[in-house]
Structure formats: C-alpha cells, structure tokens
Amino acid sequence: MVKNKQATQDKLIKAVGEVLADVGFSGVGVNAVAKRAGVDKVLIYRYFGSFDKLCLAFAQSADFWPSLKELIPDPEVLSAMGTAERVTLVLKRFTTSLRKRPLTLEVMAWELLERNAFTIELENVREASGLELNRFMQDLSSNTTRDSTDEIDWLAITAVLSAGMQYLALRARKINVYNGIELNKDEGWMQLERSIETLIAGVTT
Fold first, then answer.
1. Hey, what long-range contacts does 34-43 have (CB within 8 A, 24 or more apart)?
2. What is the pLDDT of residues 128-142, one digit of tens each?
3. Torsion of CA 62, 64, 68, 74, to 10 degrees
4. How far is Cα of residue 87 from the mean position of the Cα atoms in its chain?
5. Distance CA 6, CA 57 (A)
6. Distance between CA atoms of 1 and 188, rounded to whole angstroms?
7. Best CA proximity match to 165, nearest among 116, 97, 119
8. d(CA 58, CA 64)
9. 186-204 vs 154-171: helix axis angle to the nearest 10?
10. DSSP state at residue 153
11. 3-state secondary structure of 113
12. What is the pLDDT of residues 149-201, one digit of tens each?
C-alpha cells in the first residue's frame, strides 16, 4: 500500500511538470494533472491535501531542481580546494544538472511569459536552494585556510555565470548555435565550461 501511494504521488508530481511544459501555467489544474497521471483527482487531495500543496511538491522535487547533494561532491574533496576551484566545480555541475532536466527548461521558458502565484512559488524554491548552496560554500570557506580570493564578491560572480548558463540552456531548446558555439553538442558545452574556468581564473589573478 505504501509503495502504491508513493508511486501515485510520484506520478502526480511528474504530471504537474508535464502539463506545465505542454500548455503553460494557465492550463495547470486538478483535472488536467489527474488525467495526465492517469489517476482519480480525489487522490490529489488524499495524498497532498490540496492542489497547491501538490504544486509545491513539484517545485521542491529533485527532478525539477538540482539538490544540494547533486551539486556538491564529497565535502572533504571540496575542503582541499581553493575557493575559485570550488566555485568552478559547482558551476560546472550546475550546468550539467540543468541540461539533464529538459522538463525544467520548458517550465522555465513558460515562466518568462507568465507570472502568477505558481511561478512565484517556483522562484522562491529556486532562490531558497541557491541561498542554501551559498551558505554551504561560505561555511566551507570559513573552515578552510583563507586565501587572496576570499575578498572577491563570489555571490555576484556566480549569479552572473549561472544566469548565463541558464540562458544558454534555455536557448538550446530551440536554437542549435549561439555565437558560433554548438549548443546541441556536448563539445559546445565543454567549450562553455572551459570558459567558466577561464573567467574565474581571470578574476583571481
């Protein structure tokens, strides 16, 4: 019974994202999600309490947004690195994680066209995830030997670089080439990841 309940919950959470990607936020509702999941809509209220809570569960799911565990390798490995090296590694892992989530990219594209209570919730979850990551990185830095890069505004730098990678990932949904870089090929993304290394190295010299 517990296994069946979890399977149904997972179906409903996934269905929220699928409906979002197909028709946007205006088309997301109890009936549409239940139909996509292939279950009775009563189960939404039984398992989540309300449709809003189901939507929140989607926003908080690891399938939608990379978890801290996914972005951070073994903390002991990070502890042995300098700040610049740690930031570079996490940004590259973030890029890889985002590219693995085509459904998330579709939802983010819809967010650019529509703004409502649901899009705000998705934004809040992502912002909270980003702040959690920043706190982790700051705590890690405070527990390791300080270096000359500790005075750099890493928060702003990572915001600019991560936003750039998100934009390019969104572009890659429909456009294969951007500024001569092939977004539809791994080689193109490897080139972009090398640029992260180059940019951060430039900041720290």
1. 37/8, 37/11, 37/12, 38/11, 39/8, 39/11, 39/12, 43/8, 43/12
2. 988 888 888 887 777
3. 70
4. 16
5. 13
6. 47
7. 97
8. 7
9. 160
10. -
11. coil
12. 667 888 899 999 999 999 999 999 999 999 999 999 999 999 999 999 999 98
Ordered alpha helix ranges (H), the chain: 2-23, 30-37, 42-48, 51-60, 68-71, 75-79, 83-99, 102-111, 117-142, 154-171, 186-204
Cα separations in angstroms, 80 against 83, 122, 140: 10, 34, 10
Backbone angles phi, psi at 52, to 5 degrees: -60, -40
Name the residue with tokens 């594209």.
109
Residue 82 has which token pair? 């300098």
**How far, in Å, CA of 20 to CA of 159, rounded?**
26
Residue with tokens 């309490």: 49
Tell how many helices (H) and how many strands (E) occur in the chain: 11, 2
Six-digit token string for 112: 């650019």
Lookup result for tokens 């992260």: 196
Whether the model clears a pTM of 0.90, i.e. scores above it, the answer is: no
The angle at the Cα of 166, spanning 29 to 102, to the nearest 5 degrees, equals 50
Region for residue 101 given its phi and psi (left: phi exceeds 0; alpha: psi -120 to 50; beta: otherwise): beta
Q: Which residues pair with 182 in a beta bridge?
A: 177
Largest CA distance in the chain: 60
Query: Three-state DSSP class for 177?
Result: strand
